[in-house]
User: Which sequence fits this backbone?
């Protein structure tokens, strides 16, 4: 199981939110590049970077900072947040990111996603940001009307196998992952599931691994020093 370190960026700062609520923002660093270098040095298999300003539809963007991170570390980077059309997606691909997380576009513009999947299927990660089994989009503010399982089946048919499941009610709470949903969707071995949200201990990591998840994302637990990447890697 691969270990990904999360770097959420808002207004140029590294932050964490609770349940996606902007009013809960906590700033952990004013230097995302140095944070990226630290997680890479500590042994993360990949960085998971989210441009929160883009995700929430704000005019400001953190792409220049993210680009600097890309050229400052020697591990792959998965990027998400506000990638809602083909033009933005292809711009990101050309910059050299390994994986691109797509949310709203996948559910609102299926034809665009279908075309992208023909050329970039291995780079696409579909986000499954869920509340009570329903996938949320547009910065977690609107329902996509898709159930998690239905979304996986739909995108599998397009040849997409990478999915990022985030339990919104768990995200940023350090209350443990959504084991029930993760267990339910890991029965189909065509899909590679990345687990995100609530991971707070080595026990949580072991539980996610035992289910068969392909990867785990560490966020708030890293910043609050509850988890150490090296120790996680030893059991992952």
Assistant:
């Amino acid at each position: 199981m691969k270990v990904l370190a999360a770097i959420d960026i808002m207004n140029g700062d590294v932050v964490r939110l609770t349940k996606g609520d902007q009013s809960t923002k906590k700033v952990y660093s004013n230097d995302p590049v140095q944070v990226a270098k630290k997680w890479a040095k500590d042994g993360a298999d990949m960085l998971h970077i989210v441009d929160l300003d883009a995700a929430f539809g704000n005019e400001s963007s953190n792409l220049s900072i993210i680009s600097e991170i890309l050229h400052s570390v020697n591990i792959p980077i998965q990027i998400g947040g506000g990638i809602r059309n083909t033009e933005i997606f292809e711009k990101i691909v050309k910059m050299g990111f390994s994986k691109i997380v797509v949310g709203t576009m996948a559910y609102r513009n299926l034809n665009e996603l279908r075309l992208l999947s023909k050329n970039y299927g291995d780079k696409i990660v579909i986000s499954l940001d869920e509340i009570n089994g329903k996938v949320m989009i547009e910065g977690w503010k609107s329902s996509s009307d898709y159930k998690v399982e239905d979304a996986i089946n739909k995108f599998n048919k397009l040849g997409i196998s990478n999915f990022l499941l985030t339990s919104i009610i768990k995200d940023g709470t350090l209350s443990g992952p959504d084991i029930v949903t993760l267990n339910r969707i890991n029965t189909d071995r065509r899909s590679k599931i990345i687990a995100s949200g609530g991971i707070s201990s080595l026990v949580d990591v072991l539980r996610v691994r035992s289910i068969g998840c392909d990867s785990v994302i560490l966020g708030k637990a890293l910043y609050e020093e509850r988890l150490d990447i090296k120790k996680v890697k030893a059991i992952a």
In short: The two ends are 5 Å apart (CA to CA). The longest helix spans residues 110-120.
